[in-house]
Design a protein that fits this description.
With 603 residues, the protein is an alpha+beta fold. 60% of the residues lie in helices and 11% in strands. Among the domains are: 112 residues, Butyryl-CoA Dehydrogenase, subunit A, domain 2 (Beta Barrel); 166 residues, no CATH class. It has 19 helices and 13 strands. Strands 3, 4, 5, 6, 7, 10 and 11 form a 7-stranded mixed β-sheet that branches. Strand 8 and strand 9 form a beta hairpin. The longest helix is centred in the C-terminal third of the chain and has 40 residues. The N and C termini lie far apart (58 Å).
């Protein structure tokens, strides 16, 4: 489908920028905090600047990047004699994006950058992903300037940031090892200190764009430390003193993202320099991973948007039984659900990005109360964004392919490529199951620390939803009730195991009292967490649906015309939440029996 500008032609993006999100509320404060204090007098002036930047990226994405997307998929990166070469079209895209300032967007004004809000940056990434997933992922991988800005020394900033802004130096993040994927505590790559630098030895696998000029590697600098202790982030250049410092031993043969090389890296007494505090590498890398997860959610949203627009255009043109197939109920329902999901995805990403911006403002001003508030909300939204958007992108691209029928699997049309490009996103930057474990952990911790608040919500959300006259508020309360019920299922499973009590025979008030008394003591090394772990992904689906609904509602508060989308999405997601709760209650006990049988079989 032809489009001359991916920003102005997708009204949801401009609505979020100008009216519906939190951004208009803090845009002027952002500029006065991180820019020149008196450069702008009104929020509209700031938003005009942001919109101008996004329109330029949207125009470039639609007119120059999108036409080369299939070519980049076909050509792919070339690996020969230990060197990786990106396709010439991709290199051309990167040069143009340097001119458009995309690689300067994250860098502070003090160091020559634009320091644009995350809420603007995620929209830029989303549009590039709509145009070409290979280009957008490469840009995301090479956009680690904020990492250096936050954790680098002043000398490192002066030396490295100009290279990153011009894309003279390209970046990669190296965590994964063959025996340490999601379990970073098993990392073996070592960094031994020698004077002011380190000697790095080990192997990293599945490193996106690992052919980069500098690699941010998580290594073990304290050989006596266990688990996540004693890890540090080192900057390891590809070459040092004119010699190869990092060796790319191979690139993976993937079904997707052929122009984004996924590399195996070998470090053999490689030179490295410390970034951030020694021994605190997991915390340093976690900061980058949170940004990366939000970026993956934005990219997934862009791919889903491309699939929707391709499917919608085809369905309007394809005629069967004397009418376009978009007029057939089953097809219309599929496309309508895509639109609802994508609006929710975009609102969720935008809300998380705005939360990150407000956290940055609070940190700059030293407002401890605001720091605590926004940090908690950012931590809550990040894994949910990553999970929801990446999982939905796979479903949406698959449904788009289905709408094309047999043509969907033919390379003549782009939907098969969009589907292939989407399937990696539930794996990148922490699998969906890892995100689910994070959600479970944070949910139980939050309930344990705020038992009275949870109990009040448990008792009141459903009842209040029945009496409020505001349909949007009623939908949010009904969604909150489903989330509460999911948490209750998990809590009761822990309590039943811990206290061997017949909880189900107690009255509701007694259950509340029981949870209130023991919630702070639920978790210890003897607690059986099999059912909570088994329920983690279902809890995450329910949580993601609730927060997607809430973000969509929050991002509609200044635009009454958007309320219809909120109610339609509520009618889509709340029945889904009910189904997940039914599964947790009735389906999962059978899996527990199955797991015990397997344990006996293997023992």
């Amino acid at each position: 489908m032809a489009s001359d500008n991916f920003f102005s032609n997708v009204t949801d993006r401009s609505d979020l920028l100008r009216r519906s999100s939190r951004l208009p509320d803090y845009a002027l404060l952002w500029e006065s905090t991180f820019g020149e204090k008196d450069q702008y007098q009104t929020p509209d002036q700031v938003l005009d600047f942001y919109q101008g930047a996004l329109e330029e990226i949207g125009k470039f994405a639609a007119q120059e990047v999108r036409p080369k997307a299939a070519q980049l998929d076909e050509e792919g990166a070339v690996f020969q004699d230990g060197e990786v070469t990106l396709p010439s079209a991709l290199q051309s895209h990167l040069k143009k994006l340097v001119e458009l300032g995309l690689f300067s967007a994250q860098v502070s004004r003090d160091h020559g950058g634009f320091h644009l809000p995350q809420a603007v940056q995620v929209q830029g990434l989303e549009m590039l992903a709509q145009a070409c997933p290979n280009t957008s992922l490469t840009v995301a991988a090479f956009s680690m300037a904020s990492f250096v800005s936050k954790w680098g020394s002043e000398e490192q900033k002066q030396r490295i940031l100009p290279k990153l802004m011009n894309n003279d130096w390209q970046t990669a993040m190296a965590l994964t090892e063959s025996d340490a994927g999601s379990d970073l505590g098993q990392l073996r790559t070592s960094g031994i200190k020698e004077g002011h630098h380190y000697r790095v030895n080990g192997t990293k696998r599945f490193i996106t764009n690992g052919n980069a000029d500098i690699v941010f590697a998580l290594v073990r600098t304290d050989p006596n430390a266990k688990g996540l202790n004693g890890l540090s982030v080192l900057i390891v250049p590809k070459t040092f003193e004119g010699k190869r410092n990092v060796t790319v031993t191979k690139i993976e043969d993937k079904v997707c993202l052929h122009s984004s090389p996924t590399c195996e890296l070998a470090f053999e007494n490689s030179f490295g320099e410390l970034l951030g505090p020694e021994g605190d590498g997991f915390r340093v890398m976690l900061d980058l991973m949170n940004e990366a997860r939000l970026a993956m959610a934005a990219l997934a949203t862009g791919i889903a948007t491309a699939a929707l627009q391709e499917a919608k255009t085809y369905a309007q043109q394809r005629v069967t039984w004397n009418k376009p197939i978009i007029q057939h109920p089953l097809v219309a329902d599929m496309i309508f659900e895509m639109e609802l999901e994508i609006r929710a995805m975009r609102s969720m990403v935008m809300e998380a990005a705005c939360t990150a911006d407000l956290l940055s403002i609070a940190e700059k001003s030293g407002d401890e109360s605001a720091i605590k508030k926004w940090k908690k909300r950012y931590r809550r939204l990040t894994p949910l964004c990553k999970y929801y958007c990446c999982e939905k992108a796979v479903t949406i691209t698959k449904n788009a392919l289905q709408i094309f029928g047999g043509y969907g699997v033919c390379r003549e049309y782009p939907v098969e490529r969009l589907w292939r490009e989407s399937i990696i996103y539930p794996i990148y930057e922490g699998t969906s199951q890892i995100q689910s474990l994070m959600v479970l952990k944070d949910t139980l911790k939050d309930v344990a620390q705020h038992a009275p608040g949870f109990l009040g919500s448990l008792a009141g959300a459903w009842a209040e939803s029945k009496v409020t006259k505001d349909p949007v508020k009623s939908s949010l309360l009904r969604g909150r009730n489903e989330l509460n019920q999911a948490i209750k299922h998990i809590l009761l499973s822990i309590i039943k195991d811990k206290f061997k009590s017949d909880i189900e025979g107690l009255k509701q008030t007694k259950i509340q009292q029981f949870i209130k008394e023991y919630s702070l003591n639920l978790m210890n090394e003897k607690t059986d967490l099999t059912f909570p772990f088994l329920s983690a992904e279902r809890l995450t689906r329910i949580s993601a649906d609730y927060y997607a609904l809430k973000c969509l509602a929050d991002n509609s508060r200044n635009d009454p015309n958007r309320a219809g989308w909120v109610l339609d999405f509520a009618n889509l997601c709340i029945p889904r939440m009910k189904m997940e709760n039914t599964y947790m209650d009735e389906r999962l006990p059978a899996t527990l029996v199955y797991m015990r049988a397997q344990d006996k079989h293997h023992s």
